[in-house]
Design goal:
- It is globular and about 65 Å long.
- It contains 13 helices and 14 strands.
- The protein has two domains: 157 residues, 3-Layer(aba) Sandwich (Rossmann fold), CATH 3.40.50; 155 residues, Glycogen Phosphorylase B (Rossmann fold, 3-Layer(aba) Sandwich), CATH 3.40.50.
- It has 364 residues and is α/β, with parallel strands linked by helices.
Length: 364
Protein backbone atom coordinates (compact mmCIF):
# COMPACT_ATOMS: atom_id res chain seq x y z
CA UNK A 1 0.00 0.00 0.00
CA UNK A 2 1.37 3.43 -0.97
CA UNK A 3 2.70 5.68 1.78
CA UNK A 4 1.85 9.36 1.31
CA UNK A 5 4.73 11.84 1.44
CA UNK A 6 5.35 13.36 4.86
CA UNK A 7 4.94 17.12 4.93
CA UNK A 8 4.16 18.65 8.28
CA UNK A 9 4.86 21.79 10.23
CA UNK A 10 7.67 21.75 12.76
CA UNK A 11 8.33 24.66 15.12
CA UNK A 12 10.61 24.55 18.18
CA UNK A 13 8.80 24.77 21.53
CA UNK A 14 8.24 28.36 22.65
CA UNK A 15 9.34 29.92 19.39
CA UNK A 16 6.76 32.27 17.81
CA UNK A 17 5.89 31.71 14.16
CA UNK A 18 7.87 34.06 11.95
CA UNK A 19 6.43 36.27 9.22
CA UNK A 20 6.36 34.92 5.72
CA UNK A 21 9.71 35.56 4.12
CA UNK A 22 12.41 33.85 2.14
CA UNK A 23 11.64 30.21 1.40
CA UNK A 24 14.58 27.80 1.32
CA UNK A 25 14.59 24.10 0.46
CA UNK A 26 17.39 21.97 1.88
CA UNK A 27 18.17 18.77 -0.01
CA UNK A 28 20.04 16.30 2.19
CA UNK A 29 18.58 12.85 1.72
CA UNK A 30 20.85 10.51 3.67
CA UNK A 31 22.65 8.92 5.46
CA UNK A 32 21.90 9.37 9.15
CA UNK A 33 25.25 10.90 10.14
CA UNK A 34 25.23 13.19 7.10
CA UNK A 35 21.72 14.38 7.95
CA UNK A 36 22.81 15.22 11.50
CA UNK A 37 25.86 17.09 10.19
CA UNK A 38 23.59 19.35 8.08
CA UNK A 39 21.50 20.54 11.03
CA UNK A 40 23.76 23.44 12.11
CA UNK A 41 23.33 24.99 8.64
CA UNK A 42 19.59 25.27 9.35
CA UNK A 43 20.30 27.05 12.62
CA UNK A 44 22.58 29.48 10.76
CA UNK A 45 19.87 30.20 8.18
CA UNK A 46 17.35 31.02 10.88
CA UNK A 47 19.79 33.31 12.64
CA UNK A 48 21.05 35.11 9.53
CA UNK A 49 17.95 35.41 7.33
CA UNK A 50 15.02 37.18 9.02
CA UNK A 51 11.71 35.45 8.45
CA UNK A 52 13.24 32.52 6.58
CA UNK A 53 11.12 29.39 6.11
CA UNK A 54 13.15 26.20 5.71
CA UNK A 55 11.82 22.94 4.27
CA UNK A 56 13.94 19.79 4.05
CA UNK A 57 13.80 16.81 1.67
CA UNK A 58 15.06 13.62 3.31
CA UNK A 59 14.68 9.85 3.14
CA UNK A 60 11.57 8.75 5.03
CA UNK A 61 13.58 6.77 7.59
CA UNK A 62 15.21 10.00 8.78
CA UNK A 63 12.14 12.27 8.60
CA UNK A 64 11.26 11.86 12.33
CA UNK A 65 14.73 13.11 13.27
CA UNK A 66 14.63 16.09 10.88
CA UNK A 67 11.23 16.97 12.34
CA UNK A 68 13.05 17.53 15.65
CA UNK A 69 15.53 19.98 14.11
CA UNK A 70 14.72 23.48 15.30
CA UNK A 71 14.14 25.89 12.44
CA UNK A 72 12.77 23.30 10.01
CA UNK A 73 9.24 24.27 8.99
CA UNK A 74 8.34 21.40 6.68
CA UNK A 75 9.70 17.90 6.10
CA UNK A 76 9.22 16.26 2.69
CA UNK A 77 9.96 12.54 2.87
CA UNK A 78 11.02 10.39 -0.06
CA UNK A 79 11.89 6.72 -0.55
CA UNK A 80 14.55 6.89 -3.25
CA UNK A 81 16.49 3.99 -1.76
CA UNK A 82 13.45 1.73 -1.94
CA UNK A 83 12.21 3.05 -5.29
CA UNK A 84 15.53 2.20 -6.95
CA UNK A 85 14.95 -1.48 -6.17
CA UNK A 86 11.77 -1.62 -8.30
CA UNK A 87 11.68 1.57 -10.40
CA UNK A 88 8.94 0.41 -12.79
CA UNK A 89 6.56 -1.12 -10.24
CA UNK A 90 3.08 0.38 -10.09
CA UNK A 91 3.53 1.25 -6.40
CA UNK A 92 6.81 3.02 -7.10
CA UNK A 93 5.30 5.06 -9.92
CA UNK A 94 2.35 6.04 -7.73
CA UNK A 95 4.55 7.04 -4.81
CA UNK A 96 6.92 8.95 -7.09
CA UNK A 97 4.04 11.00 -8.50
CA UNK A 98 2.84 11.78 -4.97
CA UNK A 99 6.35 12.80 -3.95
CA UNK A 100 6.73 15.14 -6.94
CA UNK A 101 3.37 16.72 -6.15
CA UNK A 102 4.45 17.37 -2.57
CA UNK A 103 7.89 18.62 -3.63
CA UNK A 104 6.46 21.04 -6.19
CA UNK A 105 3.59 22.33 -4.05
CA UNK A 106 5.76 25.24 -2.95
CA UNK A 107 8.05 27.51 -4.97
CA UNK A 108 11.38 28.32 -3.30
CA UNK A 109 13.65 31.33 -3.37
CA UNK A 110 16.62 29.01 -2.92
CA UNK A 111 17.11 25.28 -3.34
CA UNK A 112 20.35 24.17 -1.67
CA UNK A 113 21.77 20.73 -2.43
CA UNK A 114 23.97 19.84 0.54
CA UNK A 115 24.59 16.29 -0.68
CA UNK A 116 26.33 16.69 -4.03
CA UNK A 117 25.11 13.43 -5.57
CA UNK A 118 23.11 12.55 -8.68
CA UNK A 119 20.04 11.66 -6.62
CA UNK A 120 20.09 14.95 -4.72
CA UNK A 121 20.69 16.83 -7.98
CA UNK A 122 17.57 15.17 -9.41
CA UNK A 123 15.51 16.32 -6.43
CA UNK A 124 16.92 19.85 -6.73
CA UNK A 125 16.12 19.93 -10.45
CA UNK A 126 12.53 18.78 -9.82
CA UNK A 127 11.93 21.36 -7.08
CA UNK A 128 10.06 24.46 -8.15
CA UNK A 129 11.68 27.89 -7.76
CA UNK A 130 10.25 31.39 -7.69
CA UNK A 131 10.92 33.58 -10.78
CA UNK A 132 14.13 34.85 -9.18
CA UNK A 133 14.87 31.67 -7.26
CA UNK A 134 18.14 29.79 -7.77
CA UNK A 135 19.50 26.32 -7.21
CA UNK A 136 22.81 26.04 -5.35
CA UNK A 137 25.23 23.14 -5.08
CA UNK A 138 28.85 22.15 -4.66
CA UNK A 139 31.34 22.92 -7.40
CA UNK A 140 33.89 20.31 -6.34
CA UNK A 141 34.37 17.27 -4.11
CA UNK A 142 35.84 17.54 -0.63
CA UNK A 143 38.14 15.05 1.09
CA UNK A 144 36.36 11.90 2.23
CA UNK A 145 32.97 12.91 0.82
CA UNK A 146 31.25 11.56 -2.27
CA UNK A 147 30.57 13.92 -5.17
CA UNK A 148 28.99 13.41 -8.59
CA UNK A 149 29.10 15.78 -11.56
CA UNK A 150 25.30 16.27 -11.97
CA UNK A 151 25.31 18.20 -8.68
CA UNK A 152 27.38 20.87 -10.45
CA UNK A 153 25.41 20.75 -13.70
CA UNK A 154 22.02 21.27 -12.07
CA UNK A 155 23.11 24.18 -9.88
CA UNK A 156 22.51 27.72 -11.12
CA UNK A 157 25.38 28.64 -8.83
CA UNK A 158 28.00 25.97 -8.09
CA UNK A 159 29.96 27.02 -5.04
CA UNK A 160 33.65 26.06 -4.72
CA UNK A 161 34.66 24.54 -1.41
CA UNK A 162 38.00 24.09 0.35
CA UNK A 163 38.75 20.34 -0.07
CA UNK A 164 39.92 19.83 3.53
CA UNK A 165 36.77 20.75 5.45
CA UNK A 166 34.74 19.23 8.27
CA UNK A 167 31.36 17.79 7.21
CA UNK A 168 29.46 20.24 9.43
CA UNK A 169 31.41 23.21 8.15
CA UNK A 170 30.85 22.19 4.54
CA UNK A 171 27.08 22.50 4.91
CA UNK A 172 27.35 25.72 6.92
CA UNK A 173 29.68 27.32 4.37
CA UNK A 174 27.56 26.27 1.39
CA UNK A 175 24.39 27.76 2.87
CA UNK A 176 26.21 30.92 3.88
CA UNK A 177 27.62 31.40 0.37
CA UNK A 178 24.22 30.76 -1.19
CA UNK A 179 22.36 33.20 1.04
CA UNK A 180 25.17 35.79 1.28
CA UNK A 181 25.96 35.79 4.99
CA UNK A 182 28.98 34.90 7.12
CA UNK A 183 28.97 32.13 9.68
CA UNK A 184 30.19 32.80 13.18
CA UNK A 185 30.30 30.99 16.46
CA UNK A 186 30.24 27.25 17.21
CA UNK A 187 27.89 24.93 15.37
CA UNK A 188 24.45 24.60 16.94
CA UNK A 189 22.44 21.55 15.89
CA UNK A 190 19.12 22.69 17.29
CA UNK A 191 18.05 19.09 17.86
CA UNK A 192 15.01 19.28 20.12
CA UNK A 193 14.23 16.00 21.92
CA UNK A 194 10.64 15.32 22.90
CA UNK A 195 9.33 13.75 26.05
CA UNK A 196 9.06 10.26 24.55
CA UNK A 197 11.47 7.39 24.81
CA UNK A 198 11.72 3.85 26.10
CA UNK A 199 9.77 3.68 29.35
CA UNK A 200 10.37 0.02 30.15
CA UNK A 201 13.91 -1.07 29.25
CA UNK A 202 15.07 -4.63 29.78
CA UNK A 203 17.58 -5.37 32.52
CA UNK A 204 19.39 -8.64 31.92
CA UNK A 205 16.30 -9.98 30.18
CA UNK A 206 13.87 -8.89 32.92
CA UNK A 207 11.64 -5.86 33.38
CA UNK A 208 13.27 -3.06 35.37
CA UNK A 209 12.20 -2.42 38.96
CA UNK A 210 10.29 0.87 38.74
CA UNK A 211 10.63 1.38 42.52
CA UNK A 212 14.41 1.15 42.58
CA UNK A 213 16.51 4.31 42.17
CA UNK A 214 17.67 4.63 38.60
CA UNK A 215 21.37 5.09 38.10
CA UNK A 216 22.75 7.42 35.44
CA UNK A 217 22.83 5.62 32.10
CA UNK A 218 25.66 5.54 29.60
CA UNK A 219 24.66 4.36 26.13
CA UNK A 220 27.05 2.16 24.20
CA UNK A 221 26.59 2.65 20.46
CA UNK A 222 28.22 -0.42 18.91
CA UNK A 223 26.19 -0.67 15.69
CA UNK A 224 27.45 0.61 12.37
CA UNK A 225 26.73 -0.22 8.75
CA UNK A 226 30.43 -0.85 8.05
CA UNK A 227 32.20 -3.83 9.58
CA UNK A 228 35.56 -2.03 9.47
CA UNK A 229 34.21 0.63 11.82
CA UNK A 230 33.22 -1.86 14.51
CA UNK A 231 34.94 -2.23 17.89
CA UNK A 232 35.63 -5.74 19.28
CA UNK A 233 32.85 -7.22 21.41
CA UNK A 234 35.28 -7.99 24.22
CA UNK A 235 36.21 -4.29 24.35
CA UNK A 236 32.54 -3.32 24.72
CA UNK A 237 32.14 -5.81 27.56
CA UNK A 238 35.18 -4.44 29.41
CA UNK A 239 34.03 -0.83 28.98
CA UNK A 240 30.57 -1.80 30.22
CA UNK A 241 32.06 -3.53 33.26
CA UNK A 242 34.14 -0.45 34.08
CA UNK A 243 31.04 1.74 33.77
CA UNK A 244 29.10 -0.59 36.08
CA UNK A 245 31.97 -0.51 38.58
CA UNK A 246 31.93 3.30 38.46
CA UNK A 247 28.23 3.42 39.31
CA UNK A 248 26.64 3.72 35.85
CA UNK A 249 23.97 1.60 34.26
CA UNK A 250 24.72 0.65 30.66
CA UNK A 251 22.18 1.10 27.86
CA UNK A 252 22.39 -0.76 24.57
CA UNK A 253 20.57 0.13 21.34
CA UNK A 254 20.10 -1.90 18.19
CA UNK A 255 18.78 -1.22 14.71
CA UNK A 256 18.58 -4.74 13.28
CA UNK A 257 18.73 -8.40 14.28
CA UNK A 258 22.53 -8.60 14.13
CA UNK A 259 22.95 -5.53 16.35
CA UNK A 260 20.35 -6.89 18.77
CA UNK A 261 22.35 -10.11 19.06
CA UNK A 262 25.48 -8.07 19.81
CA UNK A 263 23.61 -6.05 22.45
CA UNK A 264 22.42 -9.24 24.11
CA UNK A 265 25.91 -10.74 24.00
CA UNK A 266 27.33 -7.65 25.74
CA UNK A 267 24.47 -7.51 28.22
CA UNK A 268 24.96 -11.15 29.23
CA UNK A 269 28.31 -10.23 30.79
CA UNK A 270 27.25 -7.03 32.60
CA UNK A 271 25.52 -6.48 35.91
CA UNK A 272 23.44 -3.35 35.44
CA UNK A 273 22.38 -3.10 31.81
CA UNK A 274 19.33 -2.05 29.81
CA UNK A 275 18.82 -3.43 26.34
CA UNK A 276 16.51 -0.92 24.74
CA UNK A 277 13.59 -2.17 22.68
CA UNK A 278 13.45 -1.51 18.95
CA UNK A 279 12.57 2.16 18.49
CA UNK A 280 12.13 4.71 15.73
CA UNK A 281 14.66 7.51 15.41
CA UNK A 282 12.41 9.96 17.22
CA UNK A 283 11.97 7.75 20.30
CA UNK A 284 15.61 6.70 20.19
CA UNK A 285 16.69 10.35 20.15
CA UNK A 286 14.40 11.14 23.08
CA UNK A 287 15.70 8.16 25.05
CA UNK A 288 19.35 8.91 24.34
CA UNK A 289 18.82 12.52 25.44
CA UNK A 290 18.15 11.24 28.96
CA UNK A 291 21.54 9.51 29.21
CA UNK A 292 24.50 10.73 31.24
CA UNK A 293 26.76 10.11 28.26
CA UNK A 294 27.52 7.98 25.21
CA UNK A 295 30.46 5.91 24.00
CA UNK A 296 30.13 4.92 20.37
CA UNK A 297 31.73 4.11 17.06
CA UNK A 298 31.56 6.41 14.03
CA UNK A 299 27.86 5.98 13.22
CA UNK A 300 24.66 7.93 12.82
CA UNK A 301 23.53 7.33 16.40
CA UNK A 302 26.91 8.48 17.66
CA UNK A 303 26.52 11.73 15.71
CA UNK A 304 23.05 12.20 17.24
CA UNK A 305 24.75 12.08 20.64
CA UNK A 306 27.04 14.90 19.50
CA UNK A 307 24.05 16.90 18.28
CA UNK A 308 22.34 16.44 21.65
CA UNK A 309 25.42 17.84 23.41
CA UNK A 310 25.91 14.71 25.52
CA UNK A 311 29.27 13.77 27.02
CA UNK A 312 30.59 11.49 24.33
CA UNK A 313 33.61 9.45 23.27
CA UNK A 314 33.61 8.63 19.54
CA UNK A 315 35.72 5.65 18.48
CA UNK A 316 37.56 5.69 15.14
CA UNK A 317 39.52 2.88 13.46
CA UNK A 318 40.48 5.32 10.70
CA UNK A 319 41.99 8.79 10.88
CA UNK A 320 38.78 10.52 9.76
CA UNK A 321 37.68 12.14 12.99
CA UNK A 322 38.90 15.51 11.66
CA UNK A 323 36.08 15.33 9.07
CA UNK A 324 33.15 13.83 10.96
CA UNK A 325 34.04 13.79 14.66
CA UNK A 326 33.39 16.36 17.39
CA UNK A 327 35.09 19.71 16.80
CA UNK A 328 38.05 19.88 19.16
CA UNK A 329 38.14 23.68 18.97
CA UNK A 330 34.55 24.23 20.13
CA UNK A 331 33.48 25.19 23.67
CA UNK A 332 31.87 21.79 24.19
CA UNK A 333 35.09 19.97 23.23
CA UNK A 334 35.76 19.22 26.89
CA UNK A 335 32.60 17.10 26.81
CA UNK A 336 33.06 15.39 23.43
CA UNK A 337 36.22 13.76 22.11
CA UNK A 338 37.29 11.30 19.44
CA UNK A 339 39.80 8.47 19.88
CA UNK A 340 41.68 7.02 16.91
CA UNK A 341 44.05 4.08 16.54
CA UNK A 342 44.65 1.34 13.98
CA UNK A 343 43.45 -1.33 13.85
CA UNK A 344 41.27 0.03 16.66
CA UNK A 345 41.63 2.01 19.89
CA UNK A 346 42.37 0.11 23.08
CA UNK A 347 40.00 -0.10 26.03
CA UNK A 348 42.49 1.95 28.07
CA UNK A 349 42.52 4.76 25.48
CA UNK A 350 38.72 4.92 25.35
CA UNK A 351 38.38 4.77 29.12
CA UNK A 352 40.98 7.50 29.58
CA UNK A 353 39.02 9.66 27.11
CA UNK A 354 35.82 8.99 29.03
CA UNK A 355 37.39 10.01 32.33
CA UNK A 356 38.82 13.16 30.71
CA UNK A 357 35.27 14.38 30.05
CA UNK A 358 34.73 15.00 33.74
CA UNK A 359 31.70 12.75 33.89
CA UNK A 360 30.71 11.82 37.43
CA UNK A 361 32.27 8.67 38.86
CA UNK A 362 29.82 7.50 41.48
CA UNK A 363 31.85 4.78 43.15
CA UNK A 364 35.12 2.93 42.92
Amino acid sequence: MSQPPVRHEVLPPGRPEVKKGVKVLIVKLSSLGDVVHAMPAVHDLNQAVPGVEVDWVVERAFAPLVARCGGVKGVIACDLRRWRQSPFAAQTRSEWRAFKQSLQAQAYDAVIDLQGLTKSALVSWLARTTPKGLRYGLDNPTEGSSFEAPARWVADEAIPMEPHVHAVQRSRLLCAAAMKYSISGPDCYGLVPGSGGASAPVVNGHGSNTFAPRKPRVALVHGTSRADKQWPLAHWVEIGQRLNHSGFAVALAHGNAAEKATSEAIASQLGDVWVWPTMGLDSLTDTMAQCAGVIGVDSGLSHIAVALGLPHVQIYNFDTAWRTGPHNDLPRAARQVSVFAAPCPSVEAVWHAWESLGTPVLCR
